[in-house]
């Protein structure tokens, strides 16, 4: 009799156990894939933050100036000199910013949130009444004291990344001098929450471990983009499946490995628009297109928006071939930008610039380019300079390997911003 009572009590207790709602609702393979691609965008920013603080000993609210011409970056932009910072503010603490007067060259103080979304740019285009001087970077709604004479600028989140750019132009020394006049000054000691734990190792793609701490990852930074609520609700359901046991975890792992990552890799190539062999243009504000945001964070994190910068990419070109690109005299590269343009070659595997005897990694408006008799401009891309083309117009490519071209436009005109312009095709010479 006692055994019967104990059994009945055990069954009653089991009946009272509440299974999480997420686990009660079946999750389809497509939902696992969607949740994975969405969450990966945030995880990649957290990985970059972790690397910056652990490998490069970064500190909050301290500005770091990079040397010009750094070629060890992935797909580097060699037209500008960079300054970087991780900024932290809270409900009572702002950060002071000083930008020197800069005229006659491109510059911007570019800030992004924890999902890789452009939050703001400070320059003469976005703040024409206050393009330089003193600023106070504050959390929106913060009750914080702002120094006299400083323009308060509200940020959407407690942390942000800064990638300031100053055009090198004809006088790189002056660009470097101006870069070092940009300053960040903490106006107190903000409370900084530790980032959620990560398990990245190697490349950009995680397995089921992406969901081990998914709720904390979502809570660490609000996604302010529209239409993200269904995905934010979906992520905890996949997290619950991973935590449900070995079978659930194995299923999520298999879906990620066999479906989510391969499909995303194929989609990543096709995201955006392709015309005349060029993909683009890049964007730094993504709206509800979380796949494009994650794709950008995989291959070129910290992209700016189209009002500041546009880039086009031609992928998988043959390093043993000779390619030419010709701009008509009434559609020259400089005609489509307010500031400057460039084209850079990188290898198609590591996205690094290509070593060559000339030490030439890009062509741009500072290059001593020679124009054709009719006023058009022909650029040539080859591992060795082909006959019949001026050396000044030649950009070396890797023999025996594939390469990509990146065409950058700073201050693109409206036609480019609206996606109505693409560079001329890159044609293989027979």
Structural write-up:
With 430 residues, this protein is α+β, with helices and mostly antiparallel strands. The protein has helices spanning 2-16, 21-24, 29-55, 172-181, 214-219, 229-243, 246-270, 290-299, 414-417; strands at 64-65, 80-88, 95-99, 107-112, 118-122, 133-139, 151-155, 159-167, 183-186, 273-275, 278-280, 309-318, 323-327, 337-347, 362-364, 377-382, 394-396, 402-412, 427-428. The protein folds into 3 domains: 23-50 and 195-270, no CATH class; 61-186, Domain of unknown function DUF1254 (Immunoglobulin-like, Sandwich); 273-428, Domain of unknown function DUF1214, C-terminal domain (Jelly Rolls, Sandwich), CATH 2.60.120. The chain has 9 helices and 19 strands. The longest helix has 27 residues, at 29-55. Mean pLDDT is 90; it is low at 1-23.
Write the layout of secondary structure elements.
Blueprint: H1 2-16, H2 21-24, H3 29-55, E1 64-65, E2 80-88, E3 95-99, E4 107-112, E5 118-122, E6 133-139, E7 151-155, E8 159-167, H4 172-181, E9 183-186, H5 214-219, H6 229-243, H7 246-270, E10 273-275, E11 278-280, H8 290-299, E12 309-318, E13 323-327, E14 337-347, E15 362-364, E16 377-382, E17 394-396, E18 402-412, H9 414-417, E19 427-428
Helix pairs in contact: 3-6, 3-7, 3-8, 6-7
